[in-house]
């Protein structure tokens, strides 16, 4: 089954205008394999600057701009929030939705996340839907139940057919920013569970959804992770702030 690979950079609340420029010129020289797309998700104030610099530098077409969050509401009295229409205006193509930091620190529920996914799709953007279990949930063998409970509300709200335009990032919470990566075998087994869970609703769609792995991915471990059958790229935090390291990660990805 042919699937595109995606490497997405989640800068979180880090980065600067100089880093935007450095990243764009760095990425313009990276050799990407066929069927690989790269997405850079800086903080909201830098989105326009990325779009402008990317245009001026003639950034290669398979490198895209992403946001880290969005409101599920269309517009109105939601101080501090950003709408999908606004993201569209500044040339954003992808939106990270339901990152574990949004779920744990900002108390986003799986239902709210599902409505955000719906809003993103309605605006013609691509959601990168994040799911993942905590360390406790992994050790008490609840991983599958937790992932199912995060996926099902999205299936209920948008319908399985719409997953053809969704990217999923599996990020075990215990691996995020900790240097503890899931082993390639563990990551592959969990990705297979996710694909089978989607396949129960629609096998054709399930086989087409790019499943990214995230959690302490770096230049040293990306190759082995990306070589797994059901791992179609990665969502990269810390290592995406270092241009040279991120370039290595991007060039390790292979579309199937
Ligand atoms: P990390 O973050 O690569 O720094 O672990 C990944 C993420 O939170 O998306």
Provide the descriptors you would attach to this structure in a database record.
11 helices, binds 2-phosphoglycolic acid, eight-stranded parallel β-barrel, TIM Barrel, alpha/beta, 256 residues
Number of domains: 1
Helical content band: 40-55%
Strand content: 15-25%
Q: Calculate Rg over CA atoms.
A: 17 Å
* H/E topology pattern: EHEHEHEHHEHHEHHEHEH
Per CATH, which architecture? Alpha-Beta Barrel
Computed structural class = alpha/beta
Coarse shape: globular
User: For the largest beta sheet, what order do the strands appear in spatially?
Assistant: 1-2-3-4-5-6-7-8
Bound molecules: 2-phosphoglycolic acid
**Main pleated-sheet profile:** 8 strands, parallel, barrel
SS elements, strand count: 8
Are there runs of 5+ residues with pLDDT below 50, and where?
none
> What is the distance, rounded to the nearest whole angstrom, between the alpha carbons of the first and last residues?
7 Å
Considering the protein shown, what is the CATH homologous superfamily?
Aldolase class I
The CATH class is identified as Alpha Beta
CATH topology assignment: TIM Barrel
Total count of helical runs of at least 4 residues: 11
């Amino acid at each position: 089954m042919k699937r595109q690979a995606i490497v997405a950079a989640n800068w979180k609340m880090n980065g600067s205008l100089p880093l935007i420029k450095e990243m764009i010129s760095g990425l313009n020289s990276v050799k990407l394999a066929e069927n690989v797309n790269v997405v850079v998700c800086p903080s909201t104030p830098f989105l326009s600057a990325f779009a402008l610099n990317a245009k001026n530098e003639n950034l290669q077409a398979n490198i895209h701009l992403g946001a880290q969050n969005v409101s599920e509401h269309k517009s109105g009295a939601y101080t501090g929030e950003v709408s999908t229409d606004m993201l569209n205006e500044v040339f954003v193509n992808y939106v990270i939705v339901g990152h574990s930091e949004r779920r744990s620190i900002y108390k986003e529920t799986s239902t709210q996340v599902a409505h955000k996914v719906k809003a993103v799709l309605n605006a013609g953007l691509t959601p990168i839907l994040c799911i993942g279990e905590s360390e406790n949930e992994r050790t008490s063998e609840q991983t599958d139940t937790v992932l199912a409970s995060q996926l099902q509300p999205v299936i209920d709200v948008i319908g399985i057919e719409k997953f053809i335009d969704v990217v999923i990032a599996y990020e075990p919470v215990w691996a995020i920013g900790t240097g503890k990566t899931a082993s390639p075998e563990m990551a592959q087994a969990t990705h297979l569970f996710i694909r089978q869970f989607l396949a129960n609703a629609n096998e054709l769609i399930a086989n087409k959804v790019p499943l990214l792995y995230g959690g302490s991915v770096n230049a040293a471990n990306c190759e082995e992770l990306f070589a797994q059958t059901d791992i179609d790229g990665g969502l990269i935090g810390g290592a995406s702030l270092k241009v040279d390291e991120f370039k290595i990660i991007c060039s390790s990805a292979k579309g199937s």
